[in-house]
Every structure is written in C-alpha cells, then in structure tokens.
Amino acid sequence: MRYLDFGRILLGLGLVGLGVLSYIFGKFALQWQPVPDGLPHILAYGNGAILLVGGGGLLLSRRTAAPLALLLTGYLALWVVVQAVNDIAHPLDVGANLGLFEDLALMCGAWLAYAATADDGIAFLKGANGLMAARILFGIACLIFGLSHFLYADFTAQMVPAFLPYHLPLAYITGAGHFAAGLALISGVLSRLAAVCEAIMMSLFVVLVHIPMVVTPPPVDMVQLFWTMLCVAGALSGSAWLLAASLKDRPLGLAQR
User: Fold this and answer.
1) Rounded-to-integer distance, Cα 123 and Cα 180, Å
2) What are the residues whose beta carbons fall under 8 Å from the beta carbon of 201, sequence distance 6 or more?
C-alpha cells in the first residue's frame, strides 16, 4: 500500500506541475508540442485545468482519486492517439516518438491508479486482463526509454550529475535497465522485481538529475523545458510505483504472466 500511495502522490504532483506550467506559459506542455495545426492555443488553459483537477484529485484521497484517475486515463489516452497520428510519418524516429511513449506510460499510471482506488467501475480496467494490458503497455514504453538512452547516449551522459563518475557508461547502464525492465514486464517474468527496480531508477533520476536542474537557476530560455522535464519525470516515477503496487501479490522472484 505504501507503493500505491507514493505512486499516486508522485503522479498527482507531476500532472499538477504540468497544469501549472500551462497557465504560466499559456501553452500546452512541451510534452505535447507541437500541437496539431488548427488547434487553438487557448485550449492550453483547458488542458491545464484538467491536469490541475485530475492531478489534485489524486493527491487528496483515494476516494477522490478513482473518478479523476479515470478522467486522466481517458484524457492521456486521447493525447497518445493525437501523438501517434502526428508521428505516423516517422514511426522509426525514437527521438520524435519519445513523448508519445512517455504519455503512454503516464496513461498506464492513471489507469493503475483508477484500478487500485475504484471500488467498482469499468470491469476491464480493473480486471486481470486490463492490468496485464497496462503492464505490457508500460513495458513497451520502457523499451523505447532504454533505446533512447543508447541512440542518444551522449545527450543522456550530459544529464548525469557531475559528482558521479563514468557518465557515458551510466547512460548505457540505465538504458539497459529500462530495456530489461520492459522485457520483464512484457513477458511477465520477474515482473514485480522489474517494476520496483524501474520505479527506484526513475525516482533517482528525479532526485539526482531533475531537481538539481531547477534548483540551480537555468537559463531563461530553458526554464519551461527544465520544469517540464522535472514534472514528467516525477509523474513517470509515480506511474512506475503504481505499477509495482499492482503487482503486489507476485513474488519478487520468478512469476508467470
């Protein structure tokens, strides 16, 4: 249950942060840029409201979490579809598609929050098949996260804190960690261990990389980017903890799907 509450709070904080950024900058979060042609940017304020209300509901209590987690699941699923349509022209470009898979992982986090907090509701989202689908989708996202660490290793290495040694090896090691977690989640082998390790690794990214980036005043033109990265990383770590909570009945050792 600690995993559940920790994940719910981290996911809620991350989404509330993205909502606040929508109001501060008057734009959709960088996570969803560029928006489709013809979509009025004034809708960014509506987007911010949904994220503030939904994320705030996750923070308040489990009673308020269930309906708002369902709202967030549907809303994030809509963005997954929008981004998939936008990215269809370059399906093999990992960098261009990274935001799509981050949103997919966030959608899974909201889905798992709903499944864990709703007493009744949509049977598929709460049932064994639905939970397996959420786990596999999150695993697919982890594969893309890992692949991005390998393809953009130099950029990833630049984000490693200066006090840590071996920046480039750490970029590859964390990429391998994402990839191994993805394979375990998709196959169902060592899935609980994979979810816990993924949640720990993502949480360390928040503490060691993203918080220092915003605490040390960034360049003015990078403020929105750095805060967006922090909010997304926090929400992703919360989603990973929610995934670990959904696998609480499994042993940390070998398990079948």
Assistant:
1) 30
2) 174, 177, 178
